[in-house]
Specification:
Length: 330
């Protein structure tokens, strides 16, 4: 055949009407199984490639999904993006990715631009608190990793509070009482839950939180490095550290080693590259970005297929991986 194969060519090769071929292309359940197989076989033989723009106009929505995260440079969100893309590609969808950099105004602009491009759905790791402005968004919304207020929407993440309690309890079980917290701002819902878990774990053992050991102002690895250095300079430094995020761990770990204090026990929230090759290897709460990404993509596809689904908050399991750093005693 000469030129680009069009759907009419497929219909003629399969011996069906153009309308039937179109129904097969759009996964219409009304097409008989044998007919569907014949049309799909013709598509393969003719190497038919559907026109994504034309399908978008016919269906009323694009085959593209919008994914909005804080930063694609962040190790967690980078892995999550990879998982979302892999899951949605299998379903024949492409992914449009954008970063907010914690700017709520930018988040609104990004959402508006994606809606203008007629995305079929939105996966959002929200910035800020009130997201009631999304109430009348024509595309289905699933929140990822972080909760948002003002909108009843699906959420896929983990129980951050419970995971933090497990991490700090693990350190206390190995004899530590002066445990430092190095984490992000409590304005981030996940960070607030982890800080609350840290405090509650100490309280459960009758330990008073020593506020000089709490650093909840570490948005970046350099912030966490500076905070760790300051903790080490205290007259009575901590014997253990709970690093409440991957970015924090990327600042905490090299600082401990640079100061010759690899003897200080450490549990990190989230695994990271080479964590298992250091000496001691880093004990972590394994918070799988790939698992969260896959589950979020699956939930959005389910929401697109059935907009009437009951809103669901899905919490994926985490696990504590003991590698040595979190098992050191004071």
């Amino acid at each position: 055949m000469n030129g680009r194969t069009i759907l009419r060519d497929v219909a003629e090769a399969a011996g069906v009407s153009l309308r039937t071929a179109s129904r097969v292309l759009n996964d219409d359940h009304r097409v008989a199984s044998a007919t569907r197989q014949r049309v799909q076989q013709a598509m393969r033989e003719l190497q038919f490639q559907p026109d994504a723009m034309a399908r978008s106009l016919r269906a009323g929505t694009d085959t593209t999904i919008g994914l909005i995260v804080e930063s694609v440079a962040d190790p967690f969100f980078s892995a999550l993006t990879e998982a979302v893309e892999a899951a949605l590609t299998v379903d024949g969808k492409s992914v449009l990715v954008a970063s907010t950099h914690r700017d709520s105004a930018a988040e609104r602009r990004i959402v508006d631009r994606m809606l203008q491009r007629r995305v079929g759905g939105l996966l959002i790791s929200p910035t800020g608190d009130d997201h009631s402005w999304l109430a009348h968004t024509p595309a289905p919304v699933v929140f990822v990793d972080r909760a948002a207020y003002g909108l009843e929407a699906d959420l896929v993440g983990i129980d951050d509070h419970r995971a933090a309690v497990e991490a700090v309890t693990h350190l206390m079980a190995h004899g530590h009482r002066r445990i430092a917290f190095v984490g992000d701002s409590p304005q981030i819902t996940t960070s607030a839950a982890r800080l609350a878990g840290y405090r509650d774990a100490l309280a459960s053992r009758g330990l008073k939180v020593q506020e000089q050991l709490v650093r909840s102002d570490c948005a970046t690895a350099p912030d966490a490095a500076a905070a760790t250095a300051a903790l080490l300079e205290l007259e009575n430094p901590p014997t253990a550290v709970f690093s409440a995020g991957t970015r924090c761990s990327l600042g905490v770990v090299p600082t401990l080693h640079a100061h010759g204090r690899a003897d200080i026990a450490l549990v990190g929230f989230g695994d990271f590259a080479m964590a298992d090759t250091l000496r001691p290897a880093i004990t972590v709460i394994d918070h799988s970005a790939h698992a969260v990404g896959r589950a979020a993509a699956a939930r959005l596809l389910a929401r697109i297929a059935d907009p009437g689904l009951q809103v669901e908050h899905l919490q994926l399991p985490v696990r504590l991986i003991q590698r040595g750093s979190g098992e050191q005693r004071p």
